[in-house]
Design goal:
Elements (H helix, E strand, L loop, with lengths): L3 E7 L2 E7 L9 H15 L6 E6 L4 E3 L7 H4 L7 H15 L5 E5 L2 E3 L1 H8 L2 E5 L3 E3 L2 H4 L5 H22 L3 E2 H6 L5 E3 L1 H17 L2 H13 L9 H12 L2 H11 L10
Parallel strand pairs: 2-3, 3-5, 4-6, 5-7, 6-8, 7-10
Antiparallel strand pairs: 1-2, 8-9
Helix pairs in contact: 1-3, 3-4, 4-6, 9-10
The structure holds coenzyme A (COA).
Length: 261
């Protein structure tokens, strides 16, 4: 089998590793399947407060789908649909993780890698990273859900620039068009992500879960929104022990300790 997805839990943080460094962490069909399973595992673990997704090493987040499998797995007979279902169900599982997911991006972030990074809540990138959607070099159509996420985040003009040109852009331009949120020097990136994650896990877990769900609902059609869950999540914050603890700690000039209930 080519490559693997490794899940490591450190304290309350889940680290998902795209592990295929000989191929610039290209994602094989087996890895897409594993990714869906690992993401579901994270979603089911109430202890986890944040997830970090990265590639092994620093030369690539991922160079996208494993092209060497296209002949056998992405054949003209199924017009790519089965393969795209596989990638999209993995990406949907990552998107469904209820806690913040940070993409930590060193090196190349290409094709399906961009789509995967877009499924994360935030993208922190190395100044040495680069981004491209080379679908037009492979004569494939980038999956429609991936294009929707791209347009939502960077707008139609920048999306068309990336899709039409298939050109690689650097991290500074990626930041300018809002494809990434933060750019750091390569040697600082891991530490910056660690510091950000440490800050998140000290915050109230119910607030983070509510914020993630409610922000994501804003891009769902009005008539399809889960309004009941939106209000349930907001109510669960105000009715929580953590809310009482926050008020108590504030009045006592102490740091609150949150338990997510
Ligand atoms: N699928 C399968 N294998 C890949 C891959 C991919 N997406 N991306 C890189 N690899 C493999 C290369 O074939 C090479 O294998 P080899 O050592 O057996 O020859 C190895 O990874 C290293 O890549 P190489 O091209 O030698 O490194 P580089 O630094 O010169 O270039 C890239 C790196 C990522 C720019 C280049 O490999 C590339 O353009 N990859 C394809 C990216 C792409 O089109 N992705 C979209 C997929 S939908």
């Amino acid at each position: 089998m080519s490559g693997s997805i490794d899940l490591v839990k450190k304290g309350r943080v889940a680290y998902l590793l795209l592990n295929n460094p000989e191929k610039k962490n290209a994602i094989s069909a087996e890895m897409w399947e594993q990714l869906a399973l690992m993401a579901e595992k994270i979603s089911a673990d109430d202890d986890i407060r944040t997830t970090v997704l990265r590639g092994k090493g620093t030369s690539a987040f991922t160079a996208g789908a494993d092209i060497s499998q296209f002949e056998s797995r992405r054949s003209p007979t199924d017009r790519g649909s089965t393969y795209d279902e596989l990638t999209e169900s993995a990406i949907a599982a990552v998107k469904a993780i209820p806690v913040p997911v940070i993409a930590l991006i060193h090196g190349y972030c290409l094709g399906g890698g961009v789509s995967l990074a877009l499924a994360c809540d935030l993208r922190f990138a190395s100044r040495a990273s680069s981004f491209a959607i080379p679908a037009a070099r492979l004569s494939i159509s980038y999956p429609t859900p991936a294009i929707e996420r791209l347009v939502e985040l960077i707008g139609p003009s920048s999306a068309k620039y990336l899709l039409f040109s298939a050109k690689r852009i650097d991290a500074d331009l990626a930041k300018e068009i809002h494809l990434v949120d933060k750019v750091f020097n390569p040697e600082d990136l891991d530490e910056e992500v660690d510091a950000f994650v440490a800050a998140l896990i000290d915050n109230a877990p119910l607030s983070l879960r509510a914020a993630k769900f409610i922000v994501d609902q804003c891009s769902v059609d009005q008539d399809k929104r889960d309004i009941e869950k939106v209000y349930d999540l907001a109510r669960s914050c105000f009715e929580s022990e953590d809310y009482k603890e926050a008020v108590r700690a504030f009045m006592a000039s102490e740091r609150p300790i949150f338990h997510g209930r």
